[in-house]
């Protein structure tokens, strides 16, 4: 493998001149620069990335810590972050906490040992150990999707409360007067905000409702939606609509409805939340409250890059709006003869 000494000998210049050309520092005449670059190309020189990062105190690595990698929303979010950062010359290390505080803390320590230049974190919300590890190492972070007011950091969120309100209002305006809500993780502030927004809309319009809150945490979101819908329909057969607070649980609920011989949306309307791509390809296509997933990831990455290498930065708090995507899984309730 060629070294800078080999380059210096071939180009007929000093080691210092080679170093200035490779690191783009100091003054070098155009003629000498051309000699050095020609030698680099002839020798097919590849710089030692770890050594260069030690000198520059940067690795151009970004940590992305999310709660559940196999969840379509978080997978798409990580993908949008990776595409943005790759175009900016950075590479990412994706870590999946699996909604587990200890796993989250261990991955944080790993990212610190890998000397990442920064991290984008969708926290589990179960513990704050991870934030202490980043703070101690002076690694800048940006929170995404899930808010933790206790953590001092920039953050990019969506308006989950408004999205929950908007979703429930959609069903109400269609004429539904008995609505079931399928919630999810109790420790996720995003889920709680969606639930509270939906409940406020139902209270504002005096609409009856039932809430299914899982008694235990589970990573099997499709199964959660399936069993939640079966339970709600068994105990409240007059329900005419279900609002699942994630698209994945909504898909599970759709399968439950079909298993019970119910026609969607004629006999049961089903609404999701997230806007994952799969929802548009279901039969019927899933009506959903869509998050701007790509924008969410790109904005978080953009804010993080601005903070890297700075001793003091202004914290940015960005809240993005949701959008109702009306599709075929919701309609006015069927009139009873």
From TrEMBL:
GO molecular function terms attached to this record: DNA-binding transcription factor activity; transcription cis-regulatory region binding
Entry-linked SMART domains: HTH_LACI
Any matching Pfam family: LacI
Record has Kinase as a keyword: no
Domain HTH lacI-type: 2-56
Superkingdom of the source species: Bacteria
InterPro entries in alphabetical order: HTH_LacI, Lambda_DNA-bd_dom_sf, Peripla_BP/Lac1_sug-bd_dom, Peripla_BP_I
Keywords: DNA-binding, Transcription, Transcription regulation
Keyword Transcription part of the UniProt annotation: yes
PANTHER family cross-referenced by the UniProt entry: HTH-TYPE TRANSCRIPTIONAL REGULATOR GALS, LACI-RELATED TRANSCRIPTIONAL REPRESSOR
Protein name: LacI family transcriptional regulator
Species per Swiss-Prot/TrEMBL record: Candidatus Thermofonsia Clade 1 bacterium
């Amino acid at each position: 493998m060629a070294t800078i000494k080999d380059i210096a000998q071939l180009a007929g210049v000093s080691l210092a001149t080679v170093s200035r050309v490779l690191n783009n520092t100091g003054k070098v005449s155009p003629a000498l620069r051309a000699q050095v670059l020609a030698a680099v190309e002839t020798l097919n020189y590849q710089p030692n990335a770890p050594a260069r990062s030690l000198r520059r105190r940067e690795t151009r690595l970004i940590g992305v810590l999310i709660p559940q990698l196999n969840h379509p929303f978080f997978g798409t979010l990580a993908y949008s972050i990776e595409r943005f950062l790759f175009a900016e010359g950075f590479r990412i290390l994706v870590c999946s906490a699996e909604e587990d505080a200890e796993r989250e803390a261990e991955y944080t320590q790993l990212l610190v040992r890998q000397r990442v230049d920064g991290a984008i974190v969708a926290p589990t919300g179960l513990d704050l150990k991870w934030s202490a590890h980043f703070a101690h190492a002076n690694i800048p972070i940006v929170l995404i999707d899930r808010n933790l007011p206790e953590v001092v950091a920039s953050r990019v969120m969506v308006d989950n409360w408004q999205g929950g309100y908007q979703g429930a209002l959609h069903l109400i305006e269609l004429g539904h007067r008995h609505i079931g809500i399928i919630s999810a993780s109790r420790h996720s502030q995003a889920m709680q905000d969606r639930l509270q927004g939906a409940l406020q809309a139902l209270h504002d319009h005096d609409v009856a409702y039932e809430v299914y809150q899982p008694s235990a945490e589970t990573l099997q979101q499709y199964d959660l939606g399936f069993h939640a819908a079966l339970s709600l329909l068994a105990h409240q057969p007059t329900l005419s609509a279900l609002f699942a607070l994630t698209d994945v649980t909504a898909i599970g609920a759709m399968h439950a409805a079909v298993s019970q011989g119910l026609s969607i949306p004629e006999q049961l309307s089903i609404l999701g939340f997230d806007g994952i791509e799969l929802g548009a390809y279901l039969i019927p296509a899933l009506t959903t409250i869509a998050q701007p997933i790509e924008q969410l990831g790109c904005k978080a990455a953009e804010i993080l890059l601005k903070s890297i290498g700075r001793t003091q930065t202004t914290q940015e708090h960005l809240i993005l709006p949701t959008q109702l995507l009306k599709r075929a899984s919701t309609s006015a309730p069927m009139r009873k003869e």
